[in-house]
Amino acid sequence: MSPSQRAPVSIRLAQSEDMSKITKIQVDSIQSIGAQYYNASQIETLIENKKKGRNWKELIFVAEIQSQIVGFSALSLIEPTINGVFVDPVFIRQGIGQKLLTALEKEAVKNRTRCLWVSASLNAVPFYESQGYQTIRRNTILLPSGVPIPVVTMKKVLIPPTRAEIIVTQLIYILVILFLLFAVVLRLLFGG
């Protein structure tokens, strides 16, 4: 199917038999889109790392168009982290990544996750920004081969604190400050 034919996109949980297609989509995406942002050594290292398969504890959604997997997203089951959103390069810019990210965010909210974090590849930063993620810092991850890969740590608040939570937090800060001031005054008065 050509990308110009706009068939409906369906999102479902991945199954074990989807893993080879998921790996292929990730590798193809890194080769075609990532090559604009990373050097040949970094691309080669990323691809070799991805070809080893996904061995993390994660929830994976796949996007399908007429039973063809065209993208996937992965949410860590250990920490509030997105492990990736990848779309087949032939199907980019059709809203598939957004649908995959929305599926992850809904799952996170269902599990009362207040905010999600992602170590975004340089090429993915504009996508995450368009979905409400904020840049926290630029950093580098070292893959097992020792090759440094620049990424951008980003986060999005999914469940903002309630007014009551904000007030309680402020009261705790005030009490801590008062306690510290009291300790300083006692020390000054009684020495020691």
If you had to describe this structure to a student in words, what would you say it looks like?
The structure is a single chain. The chain folds into 2 domains: 9-113, Aminopeptidase; 161-192. Helices cover 39% and strands 29% of the residues. The protein is built from 5 helices and 7 strands. It has helices spanning 19-32, 40-51, 96-110, 125-130, 163-190; strands at 9-13, 58-65, 68-76, 81-87, 115-121, 134-142, 148-157. Helix 1 packs antiparallel against helix 2. The longest helix has 28 residues, at 163-190.
Task: List SSEs in N-to-C order.
Answer: EHHEEEHEHEEH
State the low-pLDDT regions, or none. none
Strand order of the largest sheet: 1-2-3-4-5-7-6
Tell me the number of structural domains. 2
Tell me the fraction of residues in β-strands, as a range. 25-35%
Number of strands: 7
The CATH class of the largest domain is Alpha Beta
Looking at CATH, the homologous superfamily of the largest domain is Gcn5-related N-acetyltransferase (GNAT)
Helix content class: 25-40%
Biggest sheet record: 7 strands, mixed
Cα-based radius of gyration, to the nearest Å: 22 Å
CATH architecture of the largest domain: 3-Layer(aba) Sandwich
CATH topology of the largest domain: Aminopeptidase
Terminus-to-terminus distance: 80 Å
Shape: elongated
Average of the residue pLDDT scores: 90
Return the structural class. Answer: alpha+beta
